[in-house]
Amino acid sequence: MMKVAVLGASGKLGSVISDAVDAADDLDLVARIGSRDSLETLVETGAEAVVDVTTPAAVMENLRFCIERGIHAIVGTTGFDEERLATLRGWLDEHPRVGVVIAPNFSIGALLMMQLAAKAAPFFESVEIVELHHPTKADAPSGTAQRTAALIADARREAGVGPVPDATTTALEGARGAEIDGIHVHALRIRGLVAHQEVVLGGVGETLTIRHDSLDRASFAPGALAGLRAVPAHPGLTIGLEHLLGL
Ligand code: NAP
Prior knowledge:
The protein is an alpha/beta fold. The chain has helices at residues 12-23, 40-44, 56-68, 82-93, 108-120, 143-159, 221-230, 242-245, and strands spanning 2-7, 27-33, 49-52, 72-75, 99-102, 126-133, 178-180, 183-189, 195-203, 206-214, 236-239. The protein folds into two domains: 2-102 and 218-244, Rossmann fold (3-Layer(aba) Sandwich), CATH 3.40.50.720; 108-215, 2-Layer Sandwich (Dihydrodipicolinate Reductase, domain 2), CATH 3.30.360.
């Protein structure tokens, strides 16, 4: 049984993941850590791995503590830029048996949607992304849509596919969405929705639509648990849960 602690355990994501770890037969939840708890609890309880779902302000200090003590980490917290990743690589170089996984997306369905879209992209002339979210979301387009566009653009480039066909010469501003690496991305904000995305691909006489729907935060737990089970076999820094899941 791997001993696991959750950092940010009383948060929206942390509470779901703590309960899932607690319910798993092969994982032992030894600590639920909040902002007022001491990280020493990790040592006292013998935690072998943590899931960090805290805040961009807290996560680096948490990871430094864990890496220095040989504790693996699955990190759902956002806000990692190149500078932060380089800092993590430096810490991990000094503790080469520790694994840290930066997982911007815990949803296995969303990860598959991105991988399938990239796989399909070279086979179709046209591709556009429509992301749909609740109207309280502050950023547009979503991080998932931006990442999907980048993966699609890479796959098309690698296969030598030219630009998507588009005869538009006049348009109201925004009518064709945002353009990320040559891929159009449209953002809808609709009351009642949670988090959804469609990738619409088109070739002569056919279209293919790949759609993912997040209906509940519970969808983030299986990916986090799969990451925990796999991380001891993946020392060093891994970016993206897909690399641990064999996607
Ligand atoms: P949230 O509800 O605000 O929860 C954050 C929690 O972190 C709070 O409960 C807070 O505890 C705790 N915290 C703050 N500083 C801490 C510290 N130093 N040590 C331990 N705990 C600390 O936020 P959320 O919606 O759960 O999201 C958490 C993070 O996950 C965000 O970065 C978010 O963008 C990201 N996220 C990732 C995914 C994914 O799939 N990877 C999905 C959704 C969200 P207190 O209440 O005690 O202050």
